[in-house]
Amino acid sequence: MLDLSKIPFKQSPNCRLGGLVPKYIVIHTMQGTFNGTISWFMNPKAQVSAHYLINNVDGKILQMVSLKDKAWHVGRANPISIGVELAGYVEKPYTLTPIMWESCVELCAALCKKFNLSPANIIGHSDPIMRKYGNNHHDPWKQFDFVKFRKQVQAKLDEKTV
Question: What are the chain's domains?
């Protein structure tokens, strides 16, 4: 199981301290590159952030907001959502890479374990659940197979550690 404490951390100024009580893990597509998104999330004028970013080139994970704090990624659902941004572009399906997918499975399994969440609570930014919180986005990719993804997360949760 991925050790969340070993993930590099770079604090985004775009967050609200305290108050995160996770009910969902929300998957996003950056609509940009890993490094470009880091720069954007470090800009106070952007007023946007996520807890984690994953690079589509090498699968590297970076944490940008503490799991105690609310990242700014899903409007009124921020207090109940952990945000995971995946590098790439919705209109370019090839940017959803196998190495990024695997890192996301590992990360989401560790988060589900830490917060006692079911893989069923891993949703996309476009999920209908998010509509009641004022979200109308269309990410992640249409090719992101949440059924397959949740099964892989559950398999990681079911693995026995030696």
Answer: 4-153 (3.40.80.10)
